[in-house]
Structures are given as structure tokens and as C-alpha cells.
Amino acid sequence: MTASLDPQAQKVLDLGRQAGEPPFEAGTPERARRAYLDCLPSLQGEREAVASVRERSIAGPGGPLMLRIYRGQGAPALGASALLYLHGGGWVIGNLDSHDEICRWFATLAACVVVSPDYRLAPEHKFPAAVEDCGAALSYIQGAADDLGIDARRIAVAGDSAGGNLAAVLALLARDDWHKLTAQLLFYPNTDAAQTADSYRRFGEGFGLTASTMAWFRDHYIRSAADIDDWRVSPLKAESLAGAAPAFIAIAGHDILAGEGEAYAQRLGADGVPVAIKRWPGQIHGFVSMGRHGPASRQAVEAAVAAWRKFDSAF
């Protein structure tokens, strides 16, 4: 039996209906980006204070890549843990400002350094541009550990939705190409671009993110249908997940991505990867970015930090 909607989720859905905005797929990516940013003040709460916020441009695979760097209150000047946070938005929308609230929560709650890259977006930059940019950001963090005041052996990766997809992909790539990560913290991640999970049928309409919008995002991101089976687009399709960093996965019960999040957690566990899964049965997709309307948003980040601490004994 499906749980009833959380009041926070119901309030957000009501606001969306009252606004009467057309779905993203009814317009251009540029219009979707503007609409997304315009709605954030009605969803997100006040920005939490951190010790410092700065931006830095590094050389990326496609040109300059902007990073926003947060140092949390209480983070040590040297040897701090670090988190690479990858914003969601279907690989098409979102930027450094859209997930500023979540990055600040992580920096404060974990007393760590958070780095968030302004990776290239589709359709102007299709797969694998976003993966390459996020990989470049991770390589930079590890190479600049002394300058950032972090311990290169204590880096985790996190993200929500499409950002959770990118974080999961980096956690698999890191098995071979980078130092091992301490954790992957995934909020309602996209793990299977085939979009055939039963949750697409159950929650495809009326719960915020729709099946048609998700298909629109995917089709802007991939170069052709062949990319759907590439594990760097669909990490659930990887031959093996063994050796990936320990995972925390947050699931929203009324979310078209719930099924593939659950499936990814099961695959990780079957392949010997430690997994902590936390379910919010009454929540909808994107609830971690809805801090103005209830405590569940921050509580999800608190749960992710708690899991990260358990995974990283040096915390």
C-alpha cells in the first residue's frame, strides 16, 4: 500500500498547480532553466552560514570549469574531509546557485569542504560532457588537497537525481582512475535511462517530475538511443558494481525514480558494496531542495552525513 503524501510534498505540488506553468518539455531548454531558477525562492529556505565560500576556475575538458568551494563551520584548516557535490536537473537545468542550500548544509553538518562544479549541460553539451567535467573536478580536488586544506584520502561524492547519476558513475570510475572514494551519497538517483521501472507507471503523472519530462531530459542528454545501454549513462547496467565506494541512497516514495534507486541499492549490496538506504515514503522527487516547506529536506542531508561518518572511520 502506498503511503499518503507528506504535507511538505502536498504543499509543493499545490504550489505547482497554482502557478500553472507549462511542463519543461513544452518549451526550450533555455525556458526550462529560467523557470526552474524562478521557482527556487518559493521552495528553498534561508541560506545557512558557512565559514567561507569562494569560486575558482580550473581547466576542464571543454574549457574553463567553474567550481564553488564551501568550507563548513568547524572544518579543520588542514586535513578536512571533502565532498564533491553534483547538482541535479536532468543534465539540462540547474547550476551552482540551484543547489547552494544543500551544499551549505553538507558543509555545516559534516564540518567539511564541499566542492560543486558548474558542469556543462545538455543539449548544448551531450553525454559524456557532464561526466568528463565532474571527473575533472574530482581530479582537481585530489591534486589540490594541500591548497584546499583537505585529506585526499577522505573524499566522498554526492548528488541528487541526475547529479546522483553522475555521482554513481564517478564512484564506479574511481575504482580504476582515481583514489578510492570514502562514500557515494545519492539522493533519488537516476540509474537506468531505459525508464522502464514500475515506479514510472505508478508515479508518472501528478507527483512533480513526470515520465514525459524525464524522457525529455534523457533525450537531450544522450547522443543516440545506443547511449541508454552505456553504464556511464545507466550505471545499473554496469557488468559489476564491486569495488565502488560505500553508498547511501535516499528514496522518495512518490517518485518515478524510486524503482531504479531501489534496484541500484540491491545491485550494490549483491556485489558486496556496503549500502545504507533511507526511505521517505510520503515524499516526492526533489524534496531535498524544498527546505522552505518542512524538515525532511535537511533531515535527508543529516542522514547522508550520518552514513558517511559510519563509512569513514576517520571522521
UniProtKB/TrEMBL annotation:
List the Gene3D superfamilies: alpha/beta hydrolase
| Residue positions of the active site | 161
The protein's superkingdom reads Bacteria
Pfam families for the chain? Abhydrolase_3
User: For this protein, what is any one GO molecular function term?
Assistant: hydrolase activity
Q: Which UniProt keywords apply?
A: Hydrolase
InterPro entries in the record: AB_hydrolase_3, AB_hydrolase_fold, GDXG_lipolytic_enzyme, Lipase_GDXG_HIS_AS, Lipase_GDXG_put_SER_AS
Which residues are in the Alpha/beta hydrolase fold-3 domain?
83-288
In the record, the note on similarity to other proteins reads: Belongs to the 'GDXG' lipolytic enzyme family.
Spell out the protein name for this chain: Alpha/beta hydrolase
